[in-house]
Write a structure and sequence with these properties.
7 strands; two-stranded antiparallel ribbon; 13 helices; alpha+beta; elongated
Length: 367
């Protein structure tokens, strides 16, 4: 039996062993079987197809060096590299998956074909294909890591802007305020400083995520209504000329990451205050079953061609059609990541002159 046929007929056993090895990697210890197997089934199919294709000596050499011409479409190996970067693996761990896959296939193949004349030729071709897949995966992995590094740098400037504005504006006010009128403003300074501290903690989490692993949550039993009302006061100080309101339909308690949810709420309000066409921003908090729903809306319009990628980072021109210079879109990207980490989501609608963002956060303990 030729190796290409062997790979197809023994795919399940090969993938089972590949998943067993992947589960030994710390970042994938609790991952699902689907995540563990990831794109290896398609990788095996690509290798089988390659083994059946004639190649020159030059092509063989290039593949052994990982230098074969790149496909015009994203390969399974490239997708695997990006996915493993997202899961938090290191490059060494990524390559170890391919080493384990190679060893498994060679062992099984030799056990069943020890007397076949074509074994050597097939093994040479197979190793060339694996080397090419490793090259594609590691390049995609490193590109994903670099992409997230740029995002982390942008997060620093974005997340700290609102509380720092609140501190600056409040400090200016206190220069001329009477002592008896300063207490609430001093409280704003204190709360804003605390928010900077929690944001810096978040940045440490981002930076230690090894290139884009899932967002770390620190969930606790908390009163979301109370937390968002406190965050609202900080935002009002940061945007003194805006009318920002929060309609709390009911008191909502549950298990969630307080700092992250406040961060998402602040990003949505800041986005609306900066880019809306009117000075009025309305927010609403309500509960639907075991899910909290945070809605932020204001007057404005987002073009249809901007809506599809509005939650993607590092894209200019994502704001409202107001002539306001837009930022890099990090605020909405962060909101999306916070929602997904909690098992929720965020959506946006722009119609009849109203832009409406809806953030959902499950309140149960399990993610």
């Amino acid at each position: 039996m030729r190796l290409a046929d062997f790979l197809e007929q023994n795919e399940e056993e090969i993938l089972r062993e590949a998943a067993a090895f992947a589960k030994t990697l710390p970042a994938l210890k609790t991952a699902s079987d689907k995540t563990l197997r990831d794109h290896f089934a398609q990788c095996l199919g690509d290798i089988s197809s390659d083994l059946r294709t004639a190649q020159s000596r030059t092509q063989a050499y290039d593949k052994s060096q990982g230098l074969a011409p790149r496909s015009s479409t994203v390969t399974a190996a490239e997708e695997h590299g990006e996915a493993r970067a997202q899961s938090g693996l290191t490059v060494s761990q990524l390559i170890s998956e391919y080493r384990a896959l190679r060893a498994t296939i060679i062992r099984l193949w030799l056990e069943s074909n020890s007397n076949e004349a074509d074994v050597v030729d097939d093994l040479v071709r197979f190793n060339e294909a694996i080397d090419q897949a490793v090259a594609e995966s590691t390049e995609a992995f490193e590109a994903k890591v670099e992409h997230w590094r740029h995002i982390f740098l942008g997060v620093i400037g974005h997340d700290l802007r609102a509380p720092l504005n609140a501190i600056s504006l409040t400090a200016k006010y206190l220069q001329s305020a009477f002592p008896s009128e300063a207490r609430s403003h001093l409280l704003t300074i204190s709360n804003s400083s605390k928010r900077i501290g929690t944001m810096l903690d978040s940045l440490l989490d981002y930076s230690s995520s090894r290139g884009g692993s899932a967002m770390t949550l620190k969930k606790s039993r908390s009163n979301m209504s109370k937390e968002l009302l406190e965050e609202l006061e900080i935002l009002r100080a940061a945007f003194p000329h805006q009318e920002i309101s929060l309609d709390v339909i009911q008191t909502i308690e549950g298990s969630f990451d307080v700092s992250r949810v406040r961060e998402a709420f602040a990003n949505l309000l800041s986005n609306a205050a900066e880019h809306g066409t009117a000075r009025v921003v309305k927010a609403k908090l309500k509960k639907a079953g075991d899910v909290a729903e945070i809605q932020v809306c204001n007057e404005g319009k987002i073009a249809d061609d901007k809506l599809e990628g509005i939650f993607e980072p590092l894209k200019r021109g994502q704001g409202f059609e107001t002539g306001h210079r837009t930022n890099l879109g990090l605020g909405l990207f962060i909101c999306k990541q916070i929602a997904l980490a909690h098992g929720g989501d965020i959506t946006v609608k722009s119609d009849d002159g109203i832009v409406r963002f809806t953030l959902t956060i499950p309140l149960h303990d399990a993610i």
